[in-house]
Amino acid sequence: MGLGTTASVALTGLAGHVVEVQAQLAASVPGFTLVGLPDAALHESRDRVSAAVRSTGVRWPQRKITVNLSPASLRKHGSAFDLAVAVAVLAGDGTVPAAGLDRVVHLGELGLDGRLQPVRGVLPAVAAAVDAGYTDVVVARGDAAEAALVPGARVHGAASLAEVVRLHGGDAGRVPELDPVRAVRQGAARRPAGDLADVVGQAQARAALEVAAAGGHHLLLVGPPGAGKTMLASRLPGILPDLTTAEAVEVTAVHSVAGTFDPGDGLITRPPFEDPHHTATPAAIVGGGSTVARPGAVSRAHRGVLLLDEAPEFPPRVLETLRQPLESGELMLHRAGGAARYPARFQLVLTANPCPCGLASVNKGLDCTCTPTAKRRYFGRLSGPLLDRVDLQVEALPATRAERRAAGAAEPTRDVAARVAAARAAARERMSGTPWSTNAEVPGTWLRERLGPGSGVLAPVERMIDRGAITLRGADRVLRTAWTLADLAGRTVPGAEDVAVAVTLRTRGSHA
Fold this sequence. Notes:
Blueprint: E1 2-12, E2 15-26, E3 31-35, H1 40-43, H2 45-56, E4 64-70, H3 82-93, E5 104-107, E6 109-110, E7 116-117, H4 122-131, E8 136-140, H5 144-147, E9 154-158, H6 161-167, H7 203-215, E10 219-222, H8 229-234, H9 236-239, H10 245-258, E11 273-274, H11 282-286, E12 287-288, E13 294-295, H12 297-300, E14 305-308, H13 316-320, H14 323-328, E15 330-335, E16 338-343, E17 347-352, H15 372-379, H16 384-387, E18 392-395, H17 401-405, H18 413-430, H19 444-451, H20 459-466, H21 472-489, H22 496-507
Parallel strand pairs: 3-4, 5-8, 8-9, 10-17, 10-18, 11-14, 14-17
Antiparallel strand pairs: 1-2, 2-4, 6-7, 12-13, 15-16
C-alpha cells in the first residue's frame, strides 16, 4: 500500500483554505475514488488526471486509488485541484519522491495531453497558502506572474505535468516542448478616463465630484440629457488617489477570482471603474452563479467607482440589491455550493433625468411634456431607502452662454486630484489607529465625539430631523460630508458653514 500527500487551496469567495490532498494506492481491483465534498468539475478530475499521466509517458498505477481532500467537511470546487491530485497519486506509486511534497502547494488544471492550464483566483489562493506557512507553490506557467505578486512565495511555473514530475525528482522520460497555455481574460477595454478640463460649466456638480472623491461619498447627479452627467461621473476615478498596497492586493484578488486581471501589469494600483448597462441582471451586478458565487460589478468596483448611468432605467430589483453593500461594504452570497464573502467598498454614482422626457429642469419646465404622475413614477424608481444612503445629491444643469465662452478655462484633473489627495491624507491621519480610511466609512457617533461637547454646528440638522426633512441616517451622512469639506479647506473640525454646504449638497438645495 502506498500513500502520497501534497497540498492545494480551496477558495470560498476570497478566503482561501489549504487542503491536504492524500492519495492511497491499494493492491485491489483497479479503480479511482475521489472523496471530500468535490463538485462536478472536481469530480471529473479523475478522468483528466489519468489521461494526462498517460500522455506524459508515465505508467498509470493499476491499483485501487482513493484520493481524499481534507478537511472533508469543506466544499471544494473547480479544476485547480487536478495537479495536486496527479502529484499525490504519482507520489503514492513511487514515481515521484514523496519526501517534502506535503509542504508544497499545487494549483493547476490538467489537459488530456498533460499540459497545465491556468485557473482563476491564483493570487488569493497563493496568499492563503503563504499565510498558512506554505511557501513553495507550483502553478501553470501562465499563472506564474500572478502568483509571484504574493510576497514570500517561491513560485515554480510549469507548462506540463512532465515538468512537474521532473521538478520533484521523478523520472518523466523526455519532457516534451509544449507552448504554455495562456490565461483567458474576460476584461474589456476601458474607455479613457478623460480630463475634468473638458467639462464645460457645472460648477456645483464639479464641486460635488471633488467632495465625493475626497471623502469616498456616494453621488447622485440629476439633470437633462446632454448636460454632462455621464462625462462628469466618468472622470471621478481620475481624481481619486492611488490604492494603498493593502488595497491593491485586495482589489487584485477580486479581479483574479473574476478572471478580469492581467498579471502582466502587476497589481491593480488605480481605483477600478465599473459602468454596467441598465439591462444587467441582479446576478451581474452583485455576483452569482448556479453553485459557486462569482464576484459581480459591485465587487469588481471595490475601492473604486460603480456608475449606474440613467439609474431609473435599471430594474428596481437590481437597485435594491445595492442597499446592503452600501451600508456594510461587503457582500455575502449564498449558493448551493456554499456562502462566499466579497468586499464591496465602492463609491456609487447615479445619474438620472428629472423626468421621462428630461426637460423638467430646463426653461423652468415649460418644455416638459410629462404628467405629474409620470414624473413621480419615473423618479420614484429610486427608492427612499436607496437615496437615503447617497450622501451627495446635486443638479447638473446645461452650461450657460458665459460658461460656454469660457470653455477651456476649467481646472484640469491633476489640480483637483492634488486637493483630493491632501484631504484624504488629513482624514487618514485623523483616523489612524481605526479600521476606517475615508469619512464615508466613519460612524456618526465617532464624528460627533470629535466635535466636542456643546458644539452647536449641528443645530440646523437637528431642526431638519424634527420636522422630518432628513432621517437620522441622513444626518450622519451630512456630518460626514461636513468633515470632508473641512478637510478640503484645511480645517481641523467642520464649522457651521461646512454643515450648511453639506445640507445643500445632500438635498439638491431644497432645504438649504
